């Protein structure tokens, strides 16, 4: 995928021209201006769109490999090692695509015909081409990790032509060379997800000349974390048994993936099961070989892995207050070891692992100690790395309790990058305020795509919605958080897409926008599985992320960890909104069918990739939902003494067994066990992953049929009422055999009721679905539904509503997507795929720059409906569980009913409160009030008073109505 420049190249070049003061030289002025305008003219061709434009393959393009010949490559032997590494990777790529590998040329003397010349701005080869006027390097002057691809004729006076890959620095060269590989069809995930390249006879590169953009974020990388159940056992026992750990062989593959993904930073794995990164001396050499910068996590200052290293290299307690000299010596030895390598040093101090710093008596004392710690650490950098510590990349990470300590008075040198953190579940807690934005070290983000901890882990499947990732990182970027982005990706697998999207955003923030979040995924799917499958695959994955946004698969036990609580019944209502739980399973069932249909269309060489990237996560997520929902249903019906409970128990157990079989195939059978031990279906062995909690088998005790009507969680008698049937919503009546035996049935309904089926035979249970035939319904008709089952007659009352949506005791829920407002004030942005509604709504920054204290000055949206009779109603405004982005900010909405006094409600949470935990599980924060509603038309107005608040859904419900998990948004919204 191509990337576009951050600004017009002509403007960049003119700025460079003025900065370098060429115009002050009369001798060179005219010639230089001609040169500038020539380059500016060429630059027009260099600007390119994000997808499908710019660099490409074309019949008349430069022959990288053509007519059975591979073009030779020349570089200066004095280049940094990553340049040679990239050349080796590129040669392997061309062999994989064409069967031919370009020859490495020893000198200019070997140039003939066509060639590829590779080098940085410091390369003698590049300098010679520039001096001779063959190559213009002005556009790369002073740039970070940028490159040009240009065709030159008669390089060094030799006959023929050359493709010149020129980088502003060592990684710029590597990115340029590997961009050719990517254009030829070599995915960054070729090895890590087995995306086998398609074979080609020729690779001819068109779209030249080509100028890359400068990365939008300077340091971009990943954190390998919670590796205990995937990456570490796979490396130790499958891929690198000679080391028995995540060692240099494994890191070489990880660094190759990062380099291909245009990333440049690693926080290595650091749990107890893994020896420290620097335990293996070759690890740092491999990092340098691939041009990867090494940093460490929030609890590993000065590149030290305390979990593994303090017990071996430290003396006494890890306490700066009582053991300062030994702690400093411990840090100093690592600085001495790493001074020759490119690193980002984490500053400050926490406990030995992910815990509080020892020796501090409260947050204020902690701030005082941290100031002393950082001063001491910088003296070590000045002593060993650079006399000016400000020139050494450093980061301070106010994670968890450290954020409170920072706010108590940590005096942070301005050149240290201030790295903000999310709340572990994808929502940023802070960004820089106006003063912090002026810091020379800038700001960064540490962001979770995988997490172990309270209230519950999500280590199994990667389910963070791309829309959330985009929204939060776009907010960070727009607040000048642009120096370091690190993403916790767990074991890398199965976070392949989210990792790619995150790193692509860091490289080019414009690869997605609010109205087109999934365009990036569509191109990714096209690259992986063919353009012809991209639209359907993207639709499938969008639905996968939507369902997981509503409830992650790991959260389906409705329990917590740390402290652990037992698995309990789900929050989905079986007898409201058409059976929330069954509807959810039907949606997963539809996804599975679509995946199976797609699998038949995917080429054979991509079947293994399809299993890893699509089939396993989508199908396994559905099976987890099926396991937990049917276990709940089994327990429910067992309490009623109904044998249908046994069926549900069997389906739950079958889902559990299927997950295990799928995981076994992933590890043991696919690719002859290449990924053995990489995929665990039960990370940490948590309760949600265990065998379902099922009741004892129910024995039949009586004949007959029990009847459940929607709106009733208990069996009903003849004469009961079915929940009001509306134009847009079907209702069900469920027949359950008391003895579990076969039942013959038939049903008769008024002419204005459609019956999905009117007769038949079932075993155990049967649902009869009713819907309104609007063409035959007048007003609010009433009638009888008669059901006969094995001679038993049940007569139920049915009421229809053919008019506008109305809230009543019989129809106690009305739901709206926030974006479907009747009218509003202000400018709003709708974000594709965001929220339960999939169209999260937020005011533009210009509308809510700061906290608004006068309600009628705030932007608002309105929702209109009718009520029948006098009702006590609950109005709920569902928002994303975001946080105020600046210290001291608020997070509030105001709700106004029918022009009455608005009520201001906060959705801000603090720390790890129970409210925050509930919001985390549901992925929503709720503002709610009670109101009296007389019969008639009503308006709910919702004001947004503070920045970073995203509206998702609005629900009005009758106060005593049973709780729903989801807002029942009707498919059509009639604006009154």
From TrEMBL:
Keywords assigned? Hydrolase
InterPro entries on file? GH115, GH115_C, GH115_sf, Hex-like_dom2
Q: Name one GO molecular function term.
A: hydrolase activity
Where in the numbering of this chain does the Gylcosyl hydrolase 115 C-terminal domain appear?
Answer: 821-968
Lineage top rank: taxon: Bacteria
Q: Name one Pfam family in it.
A: GH115_C
Gene3D superfamilies registered for this protein in UniProt: 1.20.58.2150, 2.60.120.1620, Chitobiase/beta-hexosaminidase domain 2-like, Glycosyl hydrolase family 115
Single Gene Ontology BP term? carbohydrate metabolic process
Instruction: Spell out the protein name for this chain.
Output: Gylcosyl hydrolase 115 C-terminal domain-containing protein
Lineage runs: Bacteria, Pseudomonadati, Bacteroidota, Cytophagia, Cytophagales
């Amino acid at each position: 995928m191509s990337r576009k420049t951050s600004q017009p190249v002509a403007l960049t070049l003119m700025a460079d021209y003025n900065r370098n003061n060429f115009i002050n030289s009369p001798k060179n002025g005219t010639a230089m201006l001609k040169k500038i305008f020539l380059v500016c003219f060429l630059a027009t061709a260099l600007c390119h769109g994000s997808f499908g434009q710019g660099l490409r393959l074309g019949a008349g393009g430069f022959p990288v490999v053509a007519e059975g010949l591979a073009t030779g490559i020349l570089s200066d032997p004095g280049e940094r090692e990553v340049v040679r590494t990239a050349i080796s990777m590129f040669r392997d790529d061309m062999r994989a695509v064409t069967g031919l590998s370009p020859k490495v040329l020893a000198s200019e003397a070997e140039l003939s015909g066509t060639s590829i010349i590779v080098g940085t701005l410091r390369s003698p080869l590049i300098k010679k081409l520039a001096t001779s006027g063959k190559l213009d390097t002005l556009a790369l002057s002073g740039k970070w990790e940028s490159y040009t691809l240009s065709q030159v004729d008669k390089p060094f006076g030799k006959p023929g032509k050359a493709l010149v890959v020129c980088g502003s620095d060592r990684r710029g060269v590597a990115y340029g060379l590997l961009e050719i590989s990517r254009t030829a069809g070599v995915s960054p995930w070729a090895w890590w997800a087995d995306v086998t390249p398609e074979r080609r006879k020729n690779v001819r590169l068109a779209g030249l000349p080509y100028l890359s953009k400068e990365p939008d974020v300077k340091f971009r990388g990943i954190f390998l974390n919670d590796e205990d159940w995937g990456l570490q056992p796979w490396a130790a026992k499958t891929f690198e048994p000679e080391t028995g750990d995540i060692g240099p062989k494994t890191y070489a593959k990880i660094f190759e993936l990062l380099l291909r993904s245009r990333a440049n930073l690693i926080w290595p794995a650091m749990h107890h099961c893994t020896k420290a990164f620097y335990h293996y001396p070759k690890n740092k050499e491999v990092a340098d070989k691939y041009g990867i910068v090494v940093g460490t996590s929030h609890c590993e200052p000065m590149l030290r892995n305390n979990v593994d290293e303090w017990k071996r290299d430290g003396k006494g307690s890890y306490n700066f207050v009582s053991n300062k000299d030994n702690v400093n010596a411990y840090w100093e030895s690592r600085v001495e070891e790493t001074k020759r390598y490119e690193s980002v040093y984490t500053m400050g101090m926490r406990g030995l692992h992910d815990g509080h710093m020892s020796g501090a008596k409260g947050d204020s004392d902690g701030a005082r100690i941290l100031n002393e710690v950082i001063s001491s650490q910088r003296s070590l950098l000045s002593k060993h790395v650079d006399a000016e510590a400000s020139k050494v990349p450093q980061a301070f990470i106010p994670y968890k309790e450290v954020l409170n300590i920072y706010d108590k008075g940590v005096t942070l040198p301005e050149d240290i990058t201030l790295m903000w953190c999310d709340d572990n579940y994808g929502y940023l807690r802070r960004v820089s305020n106006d003063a912090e934005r002026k810091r020379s070290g800038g700001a960064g983000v540490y962001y979770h795509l995988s997490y172990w901890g309270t209230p519950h882990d999500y280590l199994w499947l990667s389910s963070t919605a791309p829309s959330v990732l985009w929204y939060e990182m776009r907010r960070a970027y727009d607040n000048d958080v642009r120096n370091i982005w690190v993403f916790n990706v767990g074991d890398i697998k199965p976070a392949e897409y989210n990792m790619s999207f995150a790193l692509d955003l860091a490289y080019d923030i414009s690869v997605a926008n609010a109205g087109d979040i999934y365009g990036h995924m569509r191109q990714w799917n096209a690259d992986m599985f063919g353009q012809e499958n991209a639209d359907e695959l993207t639709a499938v994955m969008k639905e996968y992320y939507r369902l997981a946004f509503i409830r992650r698969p790991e959260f389906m036990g409705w329990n917590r960890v740390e402290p652990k609580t037992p698995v309990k019944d789900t929050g989905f209502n079986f007898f409201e909104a058409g059976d929330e739980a069954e509807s959810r399973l039907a949606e997963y069932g539809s996804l599975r069918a679509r995946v199976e249909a797609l699998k038949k269309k995917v080429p054979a060489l991509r079947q293994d990739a399809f299993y890893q990237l699509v089939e396993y996560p989508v199908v396994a997520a559905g099976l987890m939902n099926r396991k937990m929902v049917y276990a709940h249903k089994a327990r429910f019906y067992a309490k009623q003494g109904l044998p249908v409970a046994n069926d549900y128990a069997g389906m739950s157990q079958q889902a559990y067994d299927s997950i295990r079989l799928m995981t076994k195939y992933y590890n043991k059978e696919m690719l002859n066990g290449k990924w053995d031990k990489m995929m665990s279906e039960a990370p940490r062995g948590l309760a949600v992953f265990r065998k379902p909690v099922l009741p004892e088998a129910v024995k039949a005790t009586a004949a007959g049929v029990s009847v459940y009507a929607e709106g009733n969680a208990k069996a009903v008698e003849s004469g009961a009422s079915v929940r009001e049937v509306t134009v847009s919503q079907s209702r069900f009546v469920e027949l359950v055999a008391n003895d579990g035996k076969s039942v013959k049935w038939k049903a008769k309904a008024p002419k204005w009721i459609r019956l999905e089926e009117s007769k038949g035979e079932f075993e155990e249970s049967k649902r009869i679905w009713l819907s309104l035939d609007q063409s035959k319904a007048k007003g609010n008709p009433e009638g009888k539904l008669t059901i006969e089952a094995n001679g038993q007659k049940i007569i139920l009352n049915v009421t229809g509503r053919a008019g506008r949506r109305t809230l009543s005791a019989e129809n106690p829920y009305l739901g709206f997507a926030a974006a479907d407002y009747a009218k509003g004030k202000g400018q709003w942005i709708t974000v594709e795929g965001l929220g339960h509604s999939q169209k999260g709504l937020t005011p533009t920054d210009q509308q809510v720059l700061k906290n608004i204290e006068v309600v009628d000055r705030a932007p608002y949206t309105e929702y209109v409906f009718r009520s029948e009779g006098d009702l006590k109603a609950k109005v709920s405004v569902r928002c994303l569980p975001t946080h105020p982005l600046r210290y001291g900010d608020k997070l509030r909405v105001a709700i106004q009913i029918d022009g009455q006094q608005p009520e201001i409600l906060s959705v801000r949470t603090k720390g790890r409160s129970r409210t925050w935990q509930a919001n985390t599980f549901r992925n929503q924060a709720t503002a709610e009030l009670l109101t009296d509603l007389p019969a008639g038309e009503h308006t709910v107005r919702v004001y947004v008073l503070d920045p970073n608040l995203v509206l998702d859904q609005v629900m009005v419900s009758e106060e005593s109505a049973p709780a729903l998990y989801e807002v029942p948004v009707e498919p059509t919204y009639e604006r009154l």
